[in-house]
Design a protein that fits this description.
By secondary structure, this protein is an alpha/beta fold. It has one domain: Copper homeostasis (CutC) domain (TIM Barrel), CATH 3.20.20. The chain has eight helices and ten strands. It has an eight-stranded parallel sheet with strand order 7-6-5-4-3-2-1-8, with helices on one face. The chain has a two-stranded antiparallel sheet with strand order 9-10. Helix 1 links the parallel strand 1 and strand 2. Helix 1 runs parallel beside helix 8. It starts with a strand and ends with a helix.
């Protein structure tokens, strides 16, 4: 079983490596579902981590129906990621009607070549999962990250199982979303998936001593500036242990 850990800091990337992850997905702003990482973050993670790095190409939060301006940014970010040593890219583009944006997905996949492309959980917002999978096979996508079009992978387990069966060896269906040490064995046994996407995070407290309770940054709730999520090496090891037990 392969474990991919999504990270948005150097600290989390190092924890993923220490915990025995097989690959990382590098983003910014995981609380927003993941955005394109900065050049500095990618360079520093590439310098300090030997794991394969899949780089998120997502120019903004919210939906995956992109304007021409958004798409221009995605092109530039993808080329920069290739130049800076990415081992693959992660992206997803949809049409307003909930179908895959075939033309622009094809353009980005060709631009990424020879790097593999993961189509991320934009897949979970498509109107027909089976049709979307077949289209992504034709486009040459390496894998799909999906919760089975449900709030989390356990709730979407029936659909995940169907998608793994439908995909066969043509592409990888990688469950992601709400996968924990307590349910990874169930999801592995039922779905027969071989790659899993996890955050394996714990809460990191701020080192700030002085705090102004009257001010919050952006749309954050009061006090949210003083804690954040980081990947946990211990949790990643626990995922591996539970998966190995399930495979026996």
């Amino acid at each position: 079983m392969l474990i991919e850990v999504c990270v948005d800091t150097v600290e989390s990337a190092l924890a993923a490596q220490a915990g025995g992850a097989d690959r990382i997905e590098l983003c910014l702003a995981l609380a927003e579902g993941g955005l394109t990482p900065t050049v500095g973050l990618l360079q520093e993670v590439r310098r300090r981590v030997s794991l394969p790095i899949m780089v998120m190409i997502r120019p903004r939060p919210a939906d995956f129906c992109y304007s021409p301006e958004d798409f221009a940014v995605m092109r530039r970010d993808l080329l920069a990621a290739k130049e800076l040593g990415a081992d693959g890219v992660v992206l997803g583009l949809l049409q307003p009607d909930g179908t895959i944006d075939l033309d622009r997905s094809r353009e980005l996949i060709q631009l990424a070549h020879p790097l593999p492309v993961t189509f991320h959980r934009a897949f979970d917002l498509t109107r027909d999962a089976g049709q979307a999978l077949e289209q992504l096979v034709e486009l040459g996508v390496a894998r799909i990250l999906t919760s089975g079009q449900a709030p989390d992978s356990e709730a979407g387990l029936d659909t995940l199982t169907q998608l793994v069966h439908q995909a066969r060896a043509r592409l990888i269906v990688m469950p992601g979303g709400g996968i924990r040490e307590e349910n990874v064995a169930l999801i592995l046994r039922r779905s027969r998936a071989r790659e899993f996407h996890v955050s394996a995070s714990v809460t990191q407290a701020s080192s700030m001593v002085f705090r102004n309770p009257r001010v919050s940054m952006g749309q954050a709730t009061a006090g949210a500036e003083y804690e954040w999520k980081v990947a946990s090496a211990d949790r990643i090891r626990a995922f591996r242990e539970q998966a190995l037990l399930a495979e026996k």
